[in-house]
Known about the structure:
By secondary structure, the protein is of the alpha+beta class. 38% of the residues lie in helices and 20% in strands. It has helices at 6-14, 52-61, 63-72, 136-141, 180-193, 197-208, 224-245, 251-260, 266-277; strands at residues 19-24, 27-32, 41-45, 48-50, 74-75, 81-83, 96-97, 103-109, 112-117, 126-129, 163-165, 175-177, 212-214, 217-219. Strands 1-2-10-7 form a 4-stranded mixed beta sheet, with no helix packed on it. It has a 3-stranded antiparallel beta sheet with strand order 3-9-8. Strand 5 and strand 6 (81-83) form a beta hairpin. The radius of gyration is 20 Å and the shape is globular. It starts with 5 loop residues before the first helix and ends with a helix. The model has no long low-confidence stretch (mean pLDDT 85). The structure holds zinc ion. Residues 99, 147, 149, 151, 154-155 line the site of zinc ion.
Amino acid sequence: xxxxxxxxxxxxxxxxxxxxxxxxxxxxxxxxxxxxxxxxxxxxxxxxxxxxxxxxxxxxxxxxxxxxxxxxxxxxxxxxxxxxxxxxxxxxxxxxxxxxxxxxxxxxxxxxxxxxxxxxxxxxxxxxxxxxxxxxxxxxxxxxxxxxxxxxxxxxxxxxxxxxxxxxxxxxxxxxxxxxxxxxxxxxxxxxxxxxxxxxxxxxxxxxxxxxxxxxxxxxxxxxxxxxxxxxxxxxxxxxxxxxxxxxxxxxxxxxxxxxxxxxxxxxxxxxxxxxxx
Length: 278
Ligand SMILES: [Zn+2]
């Protein structure tokens, strides 16, 4: 067999040569047609890039296209949105979301976004990524996408389950609100699946939420200090849940979360985590 060089691998991923489609965890999905090792390029998202300003203009003129792009596109480094023009083609736009994914978005190559394996993937396995949807719009409309991924500790919704707080007396106090139990669910799913996708989403939400955009309108974001305190408390609750329930988990992941959020009773939690990993 000829060596599968990194270059050949990327070229094959750009052609979506080693993937196929059939029914997956949530409708049509993308499947591996060969085995992949962690770090391997699997497939690519081919499409068209639309600028943020153009997308905002669509909000008033073509709501269907606006909704489609907003929901299914991926953000580009230029601040635009890449979306699939041909949804019938086989490619990364078919990848379903999972709370314990085996792949993730990687680098841009020739105008397409590559997907790389984050775990060993056997031929025939469904390829999944974490969509990383924030869900401000879902919170306003009280309409979340149900997650059917089946991963351990599945959070139940694809987007972050933000709630919308109305405050007529002081509108600046109103806006997206993230319940602590949602943070706990997310961190718990990360710990038991040995991933960091939910954590990245939570941190990205904090970073970007100083200016949340809903449709073409900016809304009030989060109070950073209160948010971090909430993350710490929820991280502690998630770690306790993992340890008390004795579920299978990745000890390094658990320790990383404990460190990131400076969780109380660290010594005790660390010791127990180390005990489990031995
Ligand atoms: Zn899930």
